[in-house]
Amino acid sequence: MPRRHSQDRRRLQAATGFLVALSLVAVHDRAIAEANLSVVATAGYTDNLLRRAEGRAEVPMSLGLTGTWTEDTRRLSADVEGRVDGVTYLKDTYDDEVLGQFDGSVTWWAVPERFALVLVNVYGQVSTDPFSPIGPENRQNTNYLSTGPDWYIPLGARTRAYVGGRFGSVRYEETTESDSERLLGIVGVDRAVSPSSRLGVQASTEAVDYDSTLLQDFDRNEAYVRYEFTRGPQPELTVNVGYSWLSSDADDRSAPLLEIQMYRQVSPSISLELELVSRFSDAGVEFAAGGFGAGTDPSVIPEGGVFEERSGRGNVAYQRSRTTLTIAAGISDEFYETVTLDRRRYDAEISVERRMTHRVTGSASALWTRSEYQFDQADREDTDTEYRLNLRRELGPRTSLAIVGLYATRSSNVTANGFNETRGYVVFDYSLR
Which of 7, 36, 46, 270 has the CB geometry, 3.0–4.6 Å to 266, for a possible disulfide? Predict the structure, then answer.
């Protein structure tokens, strides 16, 4: 099997720069609300690294840095986390890799509560072939950037208007025909109907231009009523209801727009989250929505262009002093506008974590995913199941050691696409702050 050649030195300039800057900030800047930096070493064994019908064993090892930075002041709001890992394969089957993930959002208020500059960047890896598991031979770096101003204009004690603009870009390492630039404008007006809720109307227009002519450029226009209820540190209910228009050289389409996000603390121990969506979307938006951890998610299809999304997802969490139980389930439909590629995806997950002693924590999880594709007049069905066990022991105030076992399997109506993998690894974590 040929070895995968890559130019690792150029891959993670942004993520590495962030982690270096974060280490300096964490040491020298006492104004930071919270900054953490950790060294993580991982060693393991897998009997099927590429997750193929014909498995190939490998011994991957990695050394990396992880960092987080959060702040919320009158002038600055930041929520940033990143990771960079150097990976080597002891059987020398594949080239060494440098992998990274980054999810950062920073808002600087030039005029507090009036004028702000926003920067969002998400970096990670997605699969090159969306129908195969992500791995050393099926992985590409992806970066999403969005930046621009927000201007809030008071129209009285309880009413405000606002105007916003964003320049964005999406860049892929290999599927360059999907690289794009985008311009977004937003206008709206809302009113505080109570101390914890706002009601208003909003309109937006976005132009997405692909670098290649293989995908159709498009304009997306939306107009909707927006309601937001916030009683704690995060919104408990956000509702957008309206209509969306999609325009391209190939076709003009329209569809209802619905976005509902609900978070509710049902009791001191139980919380409930619900999300319902019906909208036009694209791979860049979906990748950015994945945030930190999106780099291990093969569900993004960069080749597809714009699609109509209809999805729903629910999450129930039960938490006591030593035990956390989470159950989640979702379904999504993606109907593509310019290519013959439609997908329905089901997923369900259950996880439990238990602090068994003062220093020892154990967790277990099971994830089930079913994907149904219609691609070039052919139907395909893949069912993936993954089981994971984790035992973590704190060795000291800043160090911990974890042992992880994983078993993954896929069944498919295309026999060659099925696989089984058993993996085990050890993780050592040392916190620098």
Answer: 270
